[in-house]
Amino acid sequence: MTIRLQAGGVRLYEQIYEHIKNEIRAGKLLAGERLPSTRSLAEYLQVARSTVDYAYGQLLDEGYIEASPCRGYFVCPIEELMQLEGAGEKAFSGVRTEDKENGGVGKQAGEAEPSDQGVDGGSFVCDFSPHEIDMSGFPFGVWKKITKNILTDANSDLFSRGEPQGDKELRLTISRYLHSSRGVNCHPEQIVVGAGNDYLLLLLEKLLGRQVRIAMENPTYLRSFRIFKSFSYQVVTVDADENGMRAGQLEKEKVTAVYCMPSHQFPSGTVMPIGRRIELLRWAAKGADRYIIEDDYDSEFRYHGKPIPALQANDEHGKVIYLGSFSKAIAPAIRVSFMVLPEALLEKYRRELFFYSCTVSRIDQSILNEFIRDGYFERHLNRMRKIYRAKHELLLEELRPFKEKFAVTGENAGLHLLLTAKGTVKEEELITAAAAAGVKVYGLSGSMAETLDQKRKAAPATVLMGFGALKHEQIREGIRRLKEVWLV
Amino acid sequence: MTIRLQAGGVRLYEQIYEHIKNEIRAGKLLAGERLPSTRSLAEYLQVARSTVDYAYGQLLDEGYIEASPCRGYFVCPIEELMQLEGAGEKAFSGVRTEDKENGGVGKQAGEAEPSDQGVDGGSFVCDFSPHEIDMSGFPFGVWKKITKNILTDANSDLFSRGEPQGDKELRLTISRYLHSSRGVNCHPEQIVVGAGNDYLLLLLEKLLGRQVRIAMENPTYLRSFRIFKSFSYQVVTVDADENGMRAGQLEKEKVTAVYCMPSHQFPSGTVMPIGRRIELLRWAAKGADRYIIEDDYDSEFRYHGKPIPALQANDEHGKVIYLGSFSKAIAPAIRVSFMVLPEALLEKYRRELFFYSCTVSRIDQSILNEFIRDGYFERHLNRMRKIYRAKHELLLEELRPFKEKFAVTGENAGLHLLLTAKGTVKEEELITAAAAAGVKVYGLSGSMAETLDQKRKAAPATVLMGFGALKHEQIREGIRRLKEVWLV
């Protein structure tokens, strides 16, 4: 390894860190390759050993390398790294109340629902909620430090109202992040920051007008379905196959808007391939009033294959409204979502909605901006990706004995898997049996836009098994119990 | 082009900018017309070329002119200009835009708009904005301390999503505060916490339904007017006398909702007496679908007489939707508002809107909760009341010499006074004369729901004079200057 260190300017450890990171990204250092020991690299470069330690520490944090006790440092596999570049966005939430409606089986995409834990989760040994996230990896220390610094610097500016679309610095940071991680092309001017997707959809309602027929997949993210229903919208559910929504149906259904999650559909986990994406975009390009709402709710956690760019990245006609959030990637409490408006809608927003003030405080915007801009977000994502991958693999492994009776899908990304029964057992029977054994699983029908959908009733029983917030031993224990009731 | 530049006061580039902007708005410079080159204009005006560059840059930024490479600067088409209102980074704040509509006189109720200061305020020696608040008295130290403690205690709970209506502790604290300070009777269960009134009104739209005819006073809080217009609502403006809205007109106008500010109407400062309140409540009680939205936007700052309880305090039939916010009493950045729903609407909310998640982060909710619960809020209010009372009395005192030519009203509460000319001078003349003296005042017409309202056009000129953010010496200097131009 040759590193040319330069005096002055960038700190030494950073030069070392940058050099190695770039070598790995460029594929010059390959997965599994061993790095020189910190001692030998320090000697070679004639720097203090602590300098190299620091650089390696950073690389470890960001997931570029891993440490093997007594053996040294090794380069991580390349696919993982590609995902790292992305960082991300998003997510949503669902609501306790839905549990009630759907006989305790429906819970919606997105965020942790702490109130659940106390009520439903409390009585379960293991709750395979697809919506909880693991907060144990959250860098509280960093968040506190940033908050403290921001409040220390506090000129009263931060306590005054900011721009309606959100502070320029944050929008710039988000646009950069979106470009590098999701391939999204946008100016900061196109971004509207808001306190949650619900609020942004409320604004969108005003932009898209009142007479909207909107298409959604089914099953889908039920919260969004309900929000559209609370508008004057006519919601049409269209069939989905293993590639996602069937674009051919859109013309027939006379819809003007489409809501979809091309990178990782909830709850099916389907990734929409490029061909289907182009069909969608073509459909949209055919009408001036046609738009696609892309909800990129949890693109950050992907375990296999290359990162999937956003649909917006392929949009050449200003037809995609990109929706993102930090609820899943950081924490549900970070009530910051954003949308990227295509030009035509941006103009309308500025003409007709300019007086709606931003719903996120400037202090929160500043904290988030620093968190992303200074690299903490990327590091956090890398750490979480490792944590979730380990849980994901454990769950897959534990589910092996189930493969005779169940098909496992959705295994490339996200924080949940789907188990579909091969036999004639009913969804409710699975859920009830699990509950009797102290385990909570979630029926796919809880994500059905129309719960009385006849076709679905006939479909094989499918349950969602989330692992985000579970500890390894909880996963093992939960599966052990499920074996006893499902595999008898 | 003839521009008369004045030494002192407004900066040169701004005079040039203002002049050209006004010529374009007035239609004296037409779309497509070429402006003189910066070089020739600079020579002609005998100013540095950079001064003209700066002025043109501003005009470009705001979309009044466009640059054509190698050809020069051209006036943009006027229709585009109409659309641009509200667009452009600078024009974002609802406020600036209104300035344009109303010839620089309109600024909206409620919150401070810091971005203005840089643009408009910067050129004024004294800006009597009715919307700015004094942040110098804000207990940053306490806020920081509470934030730090909360983050230190941080169990990850605070980073997870809370209840849709807002955390119970905060709702309890708010309900207690409302009861003791405003006479509002409510359970914490009736409170919905949200990130700003705009958001809460968006939820209300769903609760009140689509076919709403809503009555507002005129002049009124224009932001709310615009929000209702952005709904499907039919907005009816009804006459107001010195007691506020005339309840008798409501029946005739066939409205189902009323928006009002009984404790301190913006901008008139009118306090609705109990007789009129009862008329309003009686009107509401006559129809199951009738509701009164009470916006209690700045009830905290009252200098004479007893505190005025909220209208909600007299509501025996569940007809008042109480809206409150901490933007004015704490800081605009504290994006926490709340509404108190009467039982019938609460039921509907829980049935139909339960899935909308809270837009305020739990951390912010916790900070605010402690701030109020531990008495800091009350202390802060007491301190601010003293600070504002001193400014208020100073302004009243300074305005004494004006009493021959002007009537002063709105002197019991709030952060602004109204000056109504006894003669035939026009509002615009007052504003222009003040501006020439480096003083910014705000015309009442800037709060008119219908700017073309004929009756109002005939009404005597009235300007708003806010004092919230001004220092004592600024008030004195501003009034000294106004004397010179208004009392000659």
Describe the structure.
2 copies of one chain form a homodimer. With 488 residues, the first copy, chain A, is α/β, with parallel strands linked by helices. Helices cover 41% and strands 14% of the residues of chain A. Chain A contains 18 helices and 17 strands. Chain A has helices spanning 12-25, 38-45, 49-61, 78-85, 96-101, 114-119, 140-153, 168-182, 197-208, 222-230, 248-253, 274-285, 343-352, 362-373, 376-398, 427-436, 454-458, 472-486; strands spanning 65-68, 72-75, 126-127, 191-194, 213-217, 234-238, 240-241, 244-245, 257-260, 291-295, 320-325, 337-340, 406-409, 416-421, 439-440, 442-443, 462-466. In chain A, the strands form 5 sheets. Chain A has a 7-stranded mixed β-sheet with strand order 4-12-11-10-9-5-6, sandwiched between helices. A 4-stranded antiparallel β-sheet of chain A has the order 13-14-17-16, with helices on one face. Chain A has a two-stranded antiparallel sheet with strand order 1-2. In chain A, a hairpin with a 6-residue loop joins strand 13 and strand 14. Chain A is globular, with a radius of gyration of 23 Å. The N and C termini of chain A lie far apart (57 Å). Mean pLDDT of chain A is 84; it is low at 80-121. The interface between A and B is large, with 69 and 69 residues.
Short structural summary:
Two copies of one chain form a homodimer. Chain A has 488 residues and is an alpha/beta fold.
Largest sheet of chain A: 7 strands, mixed
Show the largest interface: A-B, 69 and 69 residues
How many beta-strand elements of chain A?
A: 17
Q: Strand order of the main beta sheet of chain A, please?
A: 4-12-11-10-9-5-6
Residue share in helix of chain A: 40-55%
Determine the structural class of chain A based on helices, strands and strand pairing.
Answer: alpha/beta
